Amino acid sequence: MCFFGGFFLHIIPQSQGYAAIPQRSERSESDSSMQLKRSKSGEHRGNRGRLSHEAGTQPEAPYESSEETSSLLSKSSGSGPGDLPPPDEESKKSALDSHRIDIRGFAMLGHVKFWQLWLLMGLLTGIGLMTINNIGNDTLAIWHHYDDSASPEFIQQRQLVHVEILSIMSFCGRLTSGKFFPNSTRPHKGPNAFLSTGVGSDLIVRRLSMSRFWCLVFSSLIFLLAQLCATQIENPHSLGYVSGLTGLAYGFLFGCYPALVADTFGVHGLSQNWGCMTLAPVISGNIFNILYGHIYDRHSVISKDGTRDCRDGLYCYQAAYYVTLGASVVGLAIALWSVRWDWVGRRRGGMEKDAEREA
Question: How far apart are CA 207 and CA 226, in angstroms?
Fold first, then answer.
């Protein structure tokens, strides 16, 4: 439906800004000067024609205000869109820089930042995809070991529950994180020159004046906690911690990553650059899934109908999660290094600008 509806989509650019509503005093004066009075039908038609003629020859000049024409949202007590305070100078500079930068396609290959983001994207998404694609096998193995009398229909219902948990928590993760882009239609016009969706990423950048790479640190920590649970949980009733934490970390990762790509390479080529970034999970996801399948098959026996069945419970897949646990530690280390690297880069840029001002 969305695909076919896209052909009928037509974006109409905004032609002019919005005029401010007159003040109460101005409105009362205009109302008092145009009081209604009873008149004859002919006189009424004549007055109406005369008023329309005067209105056409002498239009009232709209009250112009940079605050009113910049956004439909009213400005109150120093708060910006989404009940967040206006961005400080550093966050404004970051967003406007991402609007001016335009690096795309093969030009990204020569930048260290591209490989940094690409490898971290592949590492963390590969960890999440291994659980997302094999949560059904986890449920089957752990329930067969926990309760031999569990029917296939019951186990299938448990598998569907974990799929639902993954989907809901992934949605919550994407909603918690967010994006923060400069508004290309209204550049350099105060806090309304920025468009934002989501909560977490904007809070980190605008209110705390921190690097957006902290979002990747939080995602890596949640992935790490999920892998710890997967290597220790033997009770199938607690397996929801694995699926829930994995979905939350996966959604948080995909919620903030497009903003990181836009901050680094610019918003103009975001669709192309983001497409290049999403090639990383294709490689890492296959690697981790092949590893999981090899470990799971090693503990399985082939039944008469040709299907593989593992009755070892947690040990059917525990070794695979030890590998992803190590990968989570590596991802956390890279994310922390990215925060440090971004802070050093911004500090160096600030020092260079101070030196230019003094010169």
Answer: 29
The whole-angstrom separation of Cα 180 and Cα 260 is 9
Nearby residues of 232 by Cβ (< 8 Å), 6 or more positions away: none
Amino acid at 141: A
Q: Is the dihedral of CA 329, 334, 335, 337 positive or negative?
A: positive
For residue 307, the 8-state DSSP code is: -
| Interatomic CA distance for residues 327 and 262, integer angstroms | 26
User: Using one digit for the tens of pLDDT, what is the confidence trace for 26-77?
Assistant: 555 555 555 555 555 545 455 555 544 444 444 444 444 444 444 333 444 4
Q: Yes or no: say if 158 and 236 are a contact pair by the CB < 8 Å rule.
A: yes
Structure letter (DSSP) for residue 107: G
User: For residue 119, which of 276, 264, 326 has the smallest C-alpha distance?
Assistant: 276
d(CA 263, CA 178): 13
Could you tell me if 177 and 200 are in contact, meaning their C-beta atoms sit under 8 angstroms apart?
yes
| CA gap 176, 125 in Å, rounded | 18
Q: What is the DSSP pairing of strand 178-182 with strand 194-198? A: antiparallel
First to last CA, the chain: 60
**108-133 CB burial, b ≥16 within 10 A, e <16:** beeeebbebbbebbbbbbbbbbbbbe
Query: How far is it, in rounded angstroms, from Cα 216 to Cα 194?
Result: 22
User: Please, how many CA atoms are within 13 Å of residue 344, restricted to the half-sphere of its CB?
Assistant: 6
- Over residues 285-332, the pLDDT tens digits come to 999 999 999 999 998 888 777 777 888 889 999 999 999 999 999 999
Tokens encoding 260? 């990181």
Token pair recorded at residue 144: 């067969």
Report residue 234 as tokens: 């033997």
Helix, strand, or coil (residue 144) = helix
List, in order, residues 6 or more apart from 129 with CB less than 8 Å away.
281, 284, 285, 288, 289
Q: What residues does 301 pair with on adjacent strands?
A: 309
**3 state SS of 179:** strand
Beta carbons of 27 and 60 less than 8 angstroms apart: no
